[in-house]
Amino acid sequence: MDIHEYQCKELFRHYGVPVPDGNMAFSPDQAASVAEKIGGDRWVVKAQIHAGGRGKAGGVKVVNSCDEVRKITDHLIGSTLVTKQTGAQGKLVNRVLVEKAHNIDKEYYLGLVIDRLTQRITLIASEEGGMDIEEVAEKDPSKIISERVDPAVGLTDFQCRKIVSAINIEPKYFGSAVKLMRKLYRCFRDKDALSAEINPLALIDGERLVALDAKMSFDGNALHRQAEITDLRDLNEEDSKEVDASGHGLNYIALDGNVGCIVNGAGLAMAAMDVIDFYGERPANFLDVGGGASPDKIANAFRIVLEDPNVKVIMLNIFAGINRCDWIAEGIVQAIKDQEINMPIIIRLAGTNVELGWEIMEKSGLKYIRAEKLDDAAQKSVAALRELKS
Ligand code: ADP
Ligand code: MG
Question: Relative to the alpha carbon of 51, which ligand is closest?
Fold first, then answer.
């Protein structure tokens, strides 16, 4: 789960990671009043969307008067920002962050990620921070320094100092840089984060290090014990089908192919997607209906898959252990009757009460293509799709 920059900075404040003075605003007037409260004569107005690359796309503006704060906010809110990270469709801006503008002497990069290969939280840093870190990583990887954290020991001062000197932070800032890293690490651990990124970590006004940008992402599977983080969720930023699905206990991820998949179990869903891919077509989604899927759940699964206009064929693959094929079949019958589905539906049932399941399907009189194995189901789905395309 992702959060906005202003929310992340609020979290940083709480943990003592230095950030500029600032606050979020939903309207031009609110933005101007935030600027007044901060004081001074230079502010930055920053579009709040769950994507980076805003600076280069016109989503971060430095201004010199409250009037300009108002104008820029008016321009940004309601506009669609297209950045390197949003995809071509861009993201709608609903709020801005207004903060104090600082004079930047040098921009560094600092991040924490979980390295899945070593199963360790890893600190990443670079002296080439700012807006082009992806380019640095590609062209000059030696400029990216990393340090793995042993979970039994935690992030040590020694490791922090090693990083700080490797990215050529001046020795007089060593102490504050080490403190900042340790606080960031504490925040990361406490909140079950998957990644934390400060880009840029800036040396400002010739005197101190500050997180000018802030980005964190959290483990969705840990949200049940992270009420504070869950409260920060902005559903406007997420795929509406995914939000809808999670409300019905379905695990749905939108993809870009044409074969809509309804499967029980994450492993089987992954396998189903692989086999479709193997036969030369692409899945339109990942969808795990989970164990004990009621007829209602199956009907909702159909509805959500069908909301995607790219779906041309539906492949349903159920291996019932905890599930029961008769329940699944009832759900299918209900869904197909309620929703007038005008596309080929390929069904494979196996496991508990499978005969009963097929019986319900037969009696319903509905049109569908029966498959016996996963491989068979994928081949028939791909064949049906190819026929439609030809
Ligand atoms: P993004 O990563 O989405 O482009 P950032 O928050 O990193 O957005 O902002 C882009 C650039 O704007 C930063 O690299 C920094 O140079 C500048 N900037 C951001 N916040 C401030 C600030 N408070 N004061 C001065 N410059 C800033
Ligand atoms: Mg940035």
Answer: 1
Atom number in ligand 1 closest to CA 22:
23
CA distance 66 to 38: 11
Flag whether the pTM goes above 0.85: no
The answer to whether the CB of 317 falls within 8 A of the CB of 348 is: yes
| pLDDT 10s digits, 129-145 | 987 788 888 888 889 99
Give the number of other Cβ atoms within 10 Å of residue 366's Cβ. 15
Start and end residues for every CATH 3.30.1490.20 domain found in the chain: 21-101
Domain 239-389 - what CATH class?
A: alpha beta
Domain with CATH 3.30.470.20 in the chain: 1-20+103-237
The answer to whether 109 is a known catalytic residue is: yes
- The string of pLDDT tens digits covering residues 175-227 is 999 999 999 999 999 999 999 999 999 999 888 999 999 999 999 899 999 99
Does CATH number 3.40.50.300 belong to domain 21-101?
no
Homologous superfamily of domain range 1-20+103-237: ATP-grasp fold, B domain (3.30.470.20)
Residue 317 burial by Cβ neighbours in a 10 Å radius (0-12, 13-18, 19+): buried
Q: Whose CA is nearest to atom 5 of ligand 1?
A: 213
Å from CA of 32 to ligand 2 middle:
23
